[in-house]
Design a protein that fits this description.
heterodimer, A: 221 residues, mainly alpha, Methane Monooxygenase Hydroxylase, Chain G, domain 1, 7 helices, B: alpha/beta, Rossmann fold, 26% strand, globular
Chain lengths: 221, 270
Amino acid sequence: MRKTFESEIQQLKDEVLVLGSMVEQAILGSVEALKKRDVEASRLIYEADARINAKRYAIEEQVMIAIATQQPMAHDLRLLASLLEVSGELERMGDYAKGIAKINILMGDQPLLKPLIDIPRMAQKGADMLHRALTAFVNEDAETARLIPYEDDEVDNLYDQIYHELMLFVIQDARSIERANWLLWVAHNLERLADRVTNICERTVFIATGEMKEIESSRDE
Amino acid sequence: MEIQTMVKPTTVENTAIKVQVKGLSVYYGKFRALTGIDLTVHDRKITAIIGPSGCGKSTLLRSFNRMNDLTPGCRMEGEVILEGENLLAPAVDVVDIRRRVGMVFQRPNPFPKSIYENVAYGPRLYGIRRKSDLDEIVASSLKSAALWDEVKDKLHQSGLSLSGGQQQRLCIARALAVEPEVILMDEPASALDPISTLKIEELMQDLKKDYTIVIVTHNMQQAARVSDFTAMMMIDEQRAGRLIEYDATHIIFTRPKDKRTEDYVTGRFG
């Protein structure tokens, strides 16, 4: 019925998908650059974060205009409020990618403490969850959105594994503490990223059902 | 990383001008109803005029096609320039202006004639006689007004037999039949139910592809929904209507510059 508003909403959803794919690329790219110790690539990712931020502000402004001019109610209001929230989550995920890029830059000439195996796995898993969560979000698919957070356990398990492994390095040789710490931060960023995917899924359920509550994966206290 | 940017919102800067109002004042006898109005109406956009009752919104609208002339004692100063031509100049052909600048009123006012005759009336007045030509104009006008599908099988029934919303779309079709450049709408949906209102609003979005629309509305939400630009009016200490702020609609409704506009759109005034 409301063609103009419908097309504005569609455009906003498309923009969130664009933002999401920018973040996805940034995350995968930042870990890939670290793995290869490609400092130049990390520098580009670090700088590109400004574009992610700008995109988020543009979406925020567009949502505000839609709220002011279209007076959304019920489902439409939940959707627009969630678009604000989700674009904020994505922007912060972008910050994690930026943080990982920064670590690679900080490491300078120092070699990686160990070859990266589980960290790229975490990144891959997180990016994959993010991708599917955003697809569910724009399709308002609550059923899929309810399931994705359970996959967070896999990311958390990888994080634990990385943590213990890095601690062993530190115990064996205290001088490795800084290099271990860098990798721990990378893993931590990826772990947080997956947590934020859960927030997106919660918004999807909220839009579809009006129900606002946390989806707890099995490891949550 | 390729980044597409969002469609730039409509702004005062990036849109062509259709009508330019310069220093317009309108008097009814000694009473000055409007004072010093400067306003740019953009081509193929919807401009909404908002403001509290009695601020001169309708008077301003009626200056665009000299409808104020019909009010005894009315006098206008300043200029209303449509495509380079000052509509207030004495030598101007008022009949021609009203063809170029059509009007739709608050209450649907179809003639007590058939649907067909309502639409064919204007073109006939301007000398079109051939039935095939008139048929074509009637059909295309009704299509443009999103009414054709509902009335194509009953073109010879009375226009008054239609529902309120349909009657208003018939009046829009009647306005379109003479191929105007600008369409003035004075509270076009205030007498209609929500669904009919929605239809008129969506119709306006279709029409703006070909026409420039100026709408007066006391319904701020409607102005926000339908328009590209919004003019905010208010009366001054002498009770004369003034334009206090004019900008892209999304700016007026998210970050107006004038405190009075802010108070009005947030419902704290008026």
